Amino acid sequence: TIDLKLLTLRGTLKLGKEPLAAKLWFGGRFGGSSVELESDSDGKFHGVLPKDGWWPIDVESSSPSFKLRTKAKVEALDHERASVDIVLPATHFFGRVIMDDTGRPAAHADVGLSTDEGDMSQRTDETGSFEYRGLPAGTVYAAADLSTGQGEWTSDRAVFTVGEGQDLGPVE
């Protein structure tokens, strides 16, 4: 006998106090148990999960444009239904990675951040720009790495304080 426990999930996604339309991957985008859901313009989503409990969740929004990983506890209401409300902090950390004192942009550099909730990384665009949203408020450690055919560079680690509902940037 195979007993499958499937929960119908209903939830909401917000960036601060505002509803957020986004794709969500419960279990991570490339996890062994990955469930893709999508929230609408009111931040509402629904779908089916194999279990309740803590889930890592990859979130990708197109407006505002960002990707991040968070975690949330899915709570079973009974044997068939569950709910979760995900509120991402309304934080905005942005800037540019430059190569030298002339301000030459470091296109395609990796910008790594460390917070109390984990590490994340993204690549800069052609202008050396990067942007993070939904970071937990608090201390953020940031560093950049760039590898090209001409060599490898690593920045010093910088420390920033990100506040809820605040923009931090542009930083270089």
Description:
- With about 170 residues, this protein is an all-beta fold.
- Helices cover about 0% and strands about 60% of the residues.
- The strands form 3 sheets. Strands 1, 2, 3, 4, 5, 6, 7 and 8 form an 8-stranded mixed beta sheet that branches. Strands 10, 11, 13, 14 and 15 form a 5-stranded antiparallel beta sheet that branches. A 3-stranded mixed beta sheet has the order 12-9-16, with no helix packed on it.
- Strand 13 and strand 14 form a beta hairpin.
Comma- or semicolon-separated keywords:
8-stranded mixed sheet; single chain; 172 residues; 5-stranded antiparallel sheet
Query: Helix/strand-derived class?
Result: mainly beta
Average pLDDT score = 93
Can you tell me the residue ranges where pLDDT is under 50 for at least 5 consecutive residues?
Answer: none
Q: What proportion of the residues form beta strands (DSSP E)?
A: over 45%
Alpha-carbon Rg, integer? 19 Å
**Assembly form of the protein:** single chain
- General form: elongated
Order of helices and strands: EEEEEEEEEEEEEEEE
Major sheet characteristics: 8 strands, mixed
Q: Count of DSSP helices?
A: 0
Distance between the termini: 59 Å
DSSP E strands, number: 16
Helix content: under 10%
